[in-house]
């Protein structure tokens, strides 16, 4: 199983730290050339490898950590996303609700990646919390997952466990996903909720 993170801003780097903490190899990519990402990647750890966007999308599981509308440029890289698992860690804060056609923000992104197994996750915590050790006070920090494909959720939950988090399943994108998204300039109720699941 291969992993990549697309987007190497604060959230992408925080997720890379989670992979590095567990010595799990992960490719990272952004609009910048791989050489431009190398200093930050090296500072995070030896299992983090900068690659081109074209190489990053070859991974089995991809985490999307880009500004919301940037997903459209990523989606154009492959004509078909069959066989890929895509984890949406984006937030649509500041995106006018009218631009989403009445859909949850993740459902808008899911439409752009035909064939992908699509899961919303890792988006409700600020970057500094995602980057921190998820083992806290005898428990593990919660990450919320939602999808319209329950079968897609299981391997993502397993990944969250490997990274040290406690995954909590919220259900479909319209129901659960709506609890962890922005609507215009308003945050949903579970955004920024730093919950710890006791061991």
TrEMBL record:
PANTHER family attached to this UniProt entry: DUDULIN-RELATED, F420-DEPENDENT NADP REDUCTASE
Organism domain of life: Bacteria
Keywords assigned by UniProt, alphabetized: Oxidoreductase
Keyword field contains Oxidoreductase: yes
Pfam family, one: F420_oxidored
SUPFAM superfamilies on file: NAD(P)-binding Rossmann-fold domains
Pyrroline-5-carboxylate reductase catalytic N-terminal domain location: 4-91
InterPro entries reported in the protein's UniProt record: NAD(P)-bd_dom_sf (IPR036291), P5C_Rdtase_cat_N (IPR028939), STEAP_metalloreductase (IPR051267)
Name of the protein in question: NADPH-dependent F420 reductase
């Amino acid at each position: 199983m291969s992993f990549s993170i697309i987007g190497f801003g604060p959230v992408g780097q925080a997720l890379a730290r989670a992979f590095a903490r567990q010595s799990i190899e992960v490719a990272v990519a952004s609009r910048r050339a791989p050489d431009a990402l190398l200093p930050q990647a090296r500072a995070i750890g030896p299992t983090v490898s900068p690659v081109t966007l074209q190489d990053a999308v070859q991974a089995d599981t991809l985490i999307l950590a880009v500004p919301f509308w940037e997903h459209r440029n990523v989606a154009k890289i492959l004509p078909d996303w069959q066989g890929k698992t895509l984890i949406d860690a984006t937030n649509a804060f500041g995106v006018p609700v009218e631009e989403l056609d009445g859909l949850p923000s993740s459902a808008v992104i899911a439409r752009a990646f035909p064939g992908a197994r699509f899961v919303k996750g890792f988006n409700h915590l600020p970057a500094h919390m995602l980057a921190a050790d998820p083992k806290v006070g005898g428990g593990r920090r919660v990450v919320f997952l939602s999808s319209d494909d329950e079968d897609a959720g299981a391997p993502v939950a397993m990944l969250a466990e490997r990274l040290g988090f406690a995954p909590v399943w919220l259900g479909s994108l319209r129901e659960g996903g709506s609890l962890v998204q922005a609507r215009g300039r308003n945050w949903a109720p579970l955004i920024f909720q730093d919950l710890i699941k006791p061991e």
